[in-house]
Structures are given as C-alpha cells and as structure tokens.
C-alpha cells in the first residue's frame, strides 16, 4: 500500500531519529513506503532543511547505488547555553550542599529529558570525529555515558573497581586518585573493546582527573585510541590535573556551605568555528 507524503515524512523522521549515524538506503525507504526513489529524495530534502532549521541534526545524503541518508544529531549553541544555564540555576540551590564539600546531583541525573539533552550536547563535539565506543566507570556517570552512546549510536562499556565473574576475563590497572591521594584499582572485561577502537571517556564529575587517567591506562592495555574526554562537571582542584585536555559542561565548587556553579569550557571545546560552520551549512 502506497503511503502519503505526510505519513512518510513522519515515519522517516522517527526512523532516522532512532538510528543516528546509521546509513539508511533509499532502496529501503522506497520499498518501505512503496514509493519511487525520486519521491524519497524529495522527502529527504524536506527533512534535511527542517532538521537544520530546528537545530535537530545534520542529515547527510550519500549518492550512488550503496548510498542513502544518515542523521547526525547535534545541539546548537543557543540551545546548549540554555541547557547549561538551567543546570547552573538548579545546582546552585543552597540545600544541595553536602558535608565534605560535595554537591547533590543525583536527582538531575535521574531526569530522562535532562539526560537526553546532556547526551546530545556531549555528542555534538563528535559530529566530525569518529567514535567507536563510550567508556565510563561504575558511578553516576553510567546514565550520561549511555545517553551519549545513544546519540553516537555506538556501544558503551563500564569500568568497575572490582572484577565481576559474570564478565569473564578482565584487564585491571592501578591508578592514583588525585582527590583521595591513594592507589585504587579498576578493571574492564576483555571483550568490551576491540583493538584500535576510538574511545570517548565520559564521567559525571572530575576533580584531579585520577579516574580518567586510570581509564586512559586501560585503553593502552586494549590498544585502543583516546577519542576525547567529556565530563558533566569539573570541581575546583589545586595543582595539575592528570588529564589536561577535556570538555566540561559545568564548573562546580562547594566550600563553607556555599555552592558555586558556572559554565564549563564546553563553548570553546564544542563550538569551534569549523564545527559551527559544519552544522550550519
């Protein structure tokens, strides 16, 4: 049964949004809607224009027999600034202060809509950079890593402090926790990463960078390549961080029952002139 254009556009939008970074052939859409490829091409032109106008993503069209369309989600800077501003306001509330200079963020990371926005923003940095996997440690960073992996359409793996029998053989390393000033251990299942994988490291909070440094050491054991480091928030830290190059959405510090939250370095890292030109073409 042939499908009307309005119905096709709705279903194509849903299909592409659910499969970011995946090349979908014109032949597939043509058979799915019993429509000519010329009509599908016109539909994709409409979607490309709309996605760009709404800041939803970049719809790439690949010509040729093996070609098709691929949606690369991104977030425009205005929308990103609004998201970060909302998080700054939310986390600046005085009742979020916890003993020991910590800030309560668990409820923020428990909101599906906010998590999706965070994942989409972090994924925007890699619209022009290949990523094969996302890696995080078994803390509150797991839902963030899962969201980023969803928008990049790549698997994500979890590093644990203790190896689990259900994960089979593992590779472990020792690392120095800069904030706690002690040696700790982390382990990752051997089947988690393929050699040569380009891996994005994601975490919810970074202070001295010891945990990220430990995950970088694990990448070396897997012959994997570091694609980048992205954290939700960086804390105040005196001295040199183990990880000099990273992207943070927020800067958070809490002293003397006072919470100070400000935007991180995401603007300089994500919205470079080259990337802005790419997503605005």
TrEMBL record:
Transmembrane segments: none annotated. Residues 108-262 form the Phosphoribosyltransferase domain. Signal peptide: none annotated. Gene3D superfamilies: 3.40.50.2020, Winged helix-like DNA-binding domain superfamily/Winged helix DNA-binding domain. Keywords: DNA-binding, Transcription, Transcription regulation. InterPro entries: PRTase-like, PRTase_dom, Pur/Pyrimidine_PRTase, PuR_N, PurR_Bsub, WH-like_DNA-bd_sf, WH_DNA-bd_sf. Residues 4-73 form the Bacterial purine repressor N-terminal domain. The keyword Secreted does not apply. The keyword Magnesium does not apply. GO terms for molecular function: DNA binding. It comes from the Bacteria. GO terms for biological process: negative regulation of DNA-templated transcription; negative regulation of purine nucleobase metabolic process. Pfam families: Pribosyltran, PuR_N. Homodimer. Belongs to the purine/pyrimidine phosphoribosyltransferase family. PurR subfamily. This is Pur operon repressor. It comes from Secundilactobacillus kimchicus JCM 15530. The lineage of its organism: Bacteria, Bacillati, Bacillota, Bacilli, Lactobacillales.
């Amino acid at each position: 049964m042939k499908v009307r254009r309005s119905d096709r556009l709705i279903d194509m939008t849903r299909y592409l949004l659910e499969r970011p970074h995946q090349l979908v052939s014109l032949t597939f859409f043509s058979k799915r809607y019993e429509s000519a490829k010329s009509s599908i091409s016109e539909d994709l032109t409409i979607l490309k224009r709309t996605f760009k106008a709404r800041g939803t993503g970049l719809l790439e069209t690949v010509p040729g027999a093996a070609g098709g369309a691929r949606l690369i989600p991104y977030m425009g800077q205005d929308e990103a600034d609004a998201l970060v501003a909302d998080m700054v306001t939310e986390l600046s509330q005085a009742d979020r202060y916890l003993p020991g200079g910590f800030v309560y963020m668990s409820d923020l990371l428990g909101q599906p809509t906010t998590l999706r926005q965070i994942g989409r923003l972090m994924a925007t940095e890699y619209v022009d950079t290949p990523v094969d996997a996302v890696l995080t440690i078994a803390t509150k960073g797991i839902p963030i890593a899962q969201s980023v992996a969803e928008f990049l359409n790549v698997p994500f793996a979890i590093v644990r402090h203790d190896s689990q029998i259900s994960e089979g053989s593992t590779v472990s390393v020792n690392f120095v926790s800069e904030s706690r000033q002690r040696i700790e251990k982390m382990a990752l299942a051997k089947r988690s990463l393929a050699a040569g994988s380009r891996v994005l490291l994601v975490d919810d909070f970074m202070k001295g960078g010891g945990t990220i440094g430990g995950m970088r050491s694990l990448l070396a054991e897997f012959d994997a390549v570091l694609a980048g480091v992205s954290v939700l928030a960086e804390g105040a830290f005196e001295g040199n961080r183990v990880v000099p190059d990273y992207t943070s959405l927020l800067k958070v510090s809490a002293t003397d029952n006072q919470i100070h939250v400000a935007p991180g370095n995401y603007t300089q890292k994500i919205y470079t002139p080259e990337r802005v030109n790419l997503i605005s073409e």
